[in-house]
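QUALITY CONTROL LOG
STEP: pairwise intake check
CHECKER ROLE: data steward
CRITERIA: each record must contain a sequence immediately followed by its structure tokens, with no blank fields

ENTRY 1 OF 2
RESULT FIELD BELOW
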Amino acid sequence: MINAPYEKEFVFHNGKRAKNLLELSLMLENISQNDFEKFVNPSKNDFANWIEYVLQDKDLASSLRSTIILDKTKELINSRVASYSDFASVNTSLNGGNTRSDVLKQENLAHVADMHPINDASSENHKIEHHKIEPLPKPEKHSWWKNKNNTVKNDISQDNSEKKDNPLLRWYKFKRKEFIDNKNIPKKENHSGMHPENLIWVTIYGVLILSIIILILYKFDII
């Protein structure tokens, strides 16, 4: 029985498909008269055309074109399907009860078994070699901290070298030393024996008293 390729399958209005006469006969069992007349009528016979040009069965196609009756069309197609079934049964008996497809499956399985023989698990000829996997070395503890310390030390030494070569820093150090030296110079002693702050207040009081005396003398016309 010939199978049509997918793109040439017979498609019904409900979307169902038939790729050979057997599937077409099954579809016709449940088809309505109205749907049947869409494919077969006095002006055309879609089933006959498909069987002739796709399935290459010209005799059946010619018989189908002689009728537009649903039951007659079913009868013709079912008769051809039955002839294929009779041929299949004869083929089965000739092959000792197996269909040709079953024989092909058995031959393929035997071929696969020849290509891939079953290995005996207890055979001494097949030994599995176990490769020892060396463990990875453990990373050194605190290595990141050591690297960090080395980086900080390098940065500090680099900063110190840059400070030594900085002229502005040298000037600042010179002025700072000069200021400290001047601050440490001993102050001159006051031979009057009086604290400078007290000496200022005494002077202020003396000026005030002298001013008062002058005002009194001026008031009495003494001066």
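ENTRY 2 OF 2
RESULT FIELD BELOW
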Amino acid sequence: MDEQQYHPDFPAVNSIAPKTTPSRLGVELRQHVERGGSLTDKRLPSSAPRSPLTAPKKYARPQRKPARATPKGTEEVPVTPAGKAGEGWRIRKQEQKASLEDGKWAPKKRVARSTMERIRFLAINMPDTFDIPRLSYEFKISFEAVRRILRSNFNPSPEVIQTQESKRLALRKEYWSATQEANQPKPPTLPQPVTIITQRPKPKS
């Protein structure tokens, strides 16, 4: 039988195109088997040179930058409202830091004297129910503000209380008078009579 159509040692050569040189292909198949390869392998060695366009491309995996560790104490902790979920000491630390300006206590929200008295009354008479976090949540003020109110022993004199009460009543009366004037219905405006002036044409001389 023609050598180009049949190879006695390697029957798998019969399935390869006849244009391939059998002698060279036989050497490659022998080397492939000696290296431990199998004739039933789908990727048998070929005598045809591999085109650089069809060669498998190898892409280098980009290296990831290592995560930069932030120094301790520099991370920003989101401030959540009092009474919500979160670490209490972190929330109080951020609130206290925001309330202190140049080392002085300057809260954004002022608390009235009557509100302070109610906070003290609830803390003294019902300490189990109204603790500091509960008072902070109910009165919508910070934990630090409630703590300072309960710790403070300042009691104004009766003269100061009377002066403050008179100012409060004066402001309240002024507010009510302005509200009444704004809510008063305005008198209805009647339509004004419209006068139509007609000019007669001048006679021709």
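INTAKE CHECK: passed for both entries
DESCRIPTIVE NOTE, ENTRY 2: The two ends are 139 Å apart (CA to CA).
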